[in-house]
UniProtKB/TrEMBL annotation:
Residues 10-160 form the 7,8-dihydro-6-hydroxymethylpterin-pyrophosphokinase domain. GO terms for biological process: folic acid biosynthetic process; tetrahydrofolate biosynthetic process. It comes from Parasedimentitalea marina. Gene3D superfamilies: 7,8-Dihydro-6-hydroxymethylpterin-pyrophosphokinase HPPK. This is 2-amino-4-hydroxy-6-hydroxymethyldihydropteridine pyrophosphokinase. Keywords: ATP-binding, Folate biosynthesis, Kinase, Nucleotide-binding, Transferase. The keyword Cell wall biogenesis/degradation does not apply. Pathway: Cofactor biosynthesis; tetrahydrofolate biosynthesis; 2-amino-4-hydroxy-6-hydroxymethyl-7,8-dihydropteridine diphosphate from 7,8-dihydroneopterin triphosphate: step 4/4. Belongs to the HPPK family. The gene is folK. InterPro entries: Hppk, Hppk_sf. GO terms for molecular function: 2-amino-4-hydroxy-6-hydroxymethyldihydropteridine diphosphokinase activity; ATP binding; kinase activity. Its EC number is 2.7.6.3. It holds the Pfam family HPPK.
Length: 189
């Protein structure tokens, strides 16, 4: 029997249909597949309709956040997420491009990976560099989560008191710091 040790937050999104159906159906099927692969889904946010990011890059998204408990390592968890994305025909040919399924590991307990110095480098990366560069390794917490209403709104649905291990801010405080317009465009389905 697997020993469930770590709590992980995973952001889900999609804006293209898959063999499972609409983006909403794809997210539901992906959550079921994660459970089949040994991740214990503890919490599931509502599903939200979100404008495509960046604007004009494709159809609007459906987004959600789940909290899972697992005993696998962070790298093993990331591998599971990538495998499930591939199962749902995720294609990685364009950064921030359209996709059937996006599964982002956004946080795992209070881990900062691979270390604080590298986290801070990616946290401080300007928008133009973010568009051109992708890290070669897992960075936790996700260095952009505090900037994204489409992550913070569903995160606050399930864990408003979760505290960012570097910034020291709760999910609710990070959401409240966003422009009101960015929050208003994330609507429950």
């Amino acid at each position: 029997m697997t020993e469930f040790r770590s709590n992980s937050l995973i952001a889900l999104g999609g804006n293209l249909p898959s063999a499972a159906g609409s983006p909403t159906a794809t997210l539901v099927s992906a959550i079921a597949e994660l459970s089949r692969r040994g991740l214990y889904v503890q919490l599931l946010s509502r599903f939200f309709h979100t404008p495509c990011f960046p604007a004009g890059a494709g159809p609007d998204y459906v987004n959600a956040v789940i909290q899972v408990r697992t005993g696998v390592s962070s790298d093993e968890l990331l591998s599971i997420l990538h495998d499930v994305e591939e199962q749902f025909a995720r294609v990685r040919d364009q950064r921030w491009g359209m996709r059937t399924l996006d599964l982002d590991l956004i946080a795992r307990d209070d881990q900062v990976l691979p270390d604080l110095e590298i986290y801070e480098k990616w946290y401080g990366l300007g928008l133009e560099e973010q568009k051109r560069q992708a890290p070669k390794y897992l960075i936790l917490p996700h260095p952009r989560l505090q900037d994204r209403g489409f992550v913070l709104v569903p995160l606050c649905d399930i864990a408003p008191d979760w505290v960012h291990p570097v910034l020291g801010l709760s999910a609710r405080e990070m959401l409240d710091a966003l422009p009101k317009a960015a929050i208003a465009e994330v609507q429950p389905l």
